[in-house]
Amino acid sequence: MKVQSSYICLNDMRFYAYHGVLPQERRVGGWYTVTLRVGFNVEKAMSSDSIHDTLDYATLYELVKTEMAVPSALIEHVAGRIASAIEQAVPQAASIDMTLTKSNPPMGADCWGASVEIHLINDKTQH
Length: 127
Prior knowledge:
alpha+beta; four-stranded antiparallel beta sheet
């Protein structure tokens, strides 16, 4: 069998960060959740059992953590920065799927969170 597609995933990473349009959000902060799925060919790692043949998920986590620590008004901006950091660090990544959720957003509604979801394709890796 041949691998048709493969992904490295980090699910429900939690961060306390200082994003928001309102000044109080930037001062007090709040909880955010990031779920990430990066298209990456793991076929070689399946047989080699070597970290050098795959995408180290600890590296991905550090990229997300670094960008979550930089305050922004919009979670869309944060998601864009995370995607750019991954693209720079892992140019062979075929795609990035990400959901960034702001828990308990200050909008007067009873909801668990508000999210931005993005799906990016690396056109340089497509044949």
